[in-house]
Please model this.
Amino acid sequence: MFRRLRENKWVWLGFFAALLAVQAAWVMFSYRFCPDDPVLLTGFRGNMISGIVGGFMFLFLAFFLGSGIERIQTETHALTVQRAAQDKDRQKIGDFKAFEASQTYHGALFPDLTGKLNDQGFEYIIEPVRDSTGAPLRRVTEMDDDYLVRIRSISYPSQRGEDNLREYEKCPIRIGDHYFCRFFNGDWHMNRESAGGEWHRFLLSGKVGPVEYGMTANEFVTRAMKARN
Model:
């Protein structure tokens, strides 16, 4: 209740106005009844009364300004949290678009789809679907902008036991099927249907694939020049 009063500026403005009114009435009373020697405004009594009124005014200013500073701090913190969430969303969107545009596969973890042996979620290898020009295939409407992926396989299939693989058989994600991918509520989701069905949240995880051997910069330039010619 006390904090609510601090945050209500109209209550404090009314309190300040009441103090001014009391002080004005006190002055008028003193000059009305003691015009020659307003003892209530001078000497020890006057100093005491002025100190009391000044103390109340100081408390008013302290609480009023403190409420304003606290409100600014709260709003600044909320804005900082909001911007951090927006930056995180942009990072997720950018990473997925980069995968769609230039990569051949990626790991995808479904944290909401779990099993007894896969309590962190089922993980698959997905690959982007591209059109004849090599651009990511998308379903764009007035309301939606969906990317397409294909489920290539289970991640680390050779390292999973029979019981683990049987859990994957019960998972609603199907190997070889295509899925629409849509970003909402701070994460990417995929669904076999554009309308209806069930959207499954997924996270881009690590990449699993065959060993790639490196090369020197000279070898790379030589191969690139041969390919160009």
About this structure: The helical segments are 2-7, 9-33, 43-102, 162-170, 217-228. The mean pLDDT is 79. The chain has two domains: 2-93, 103-204.
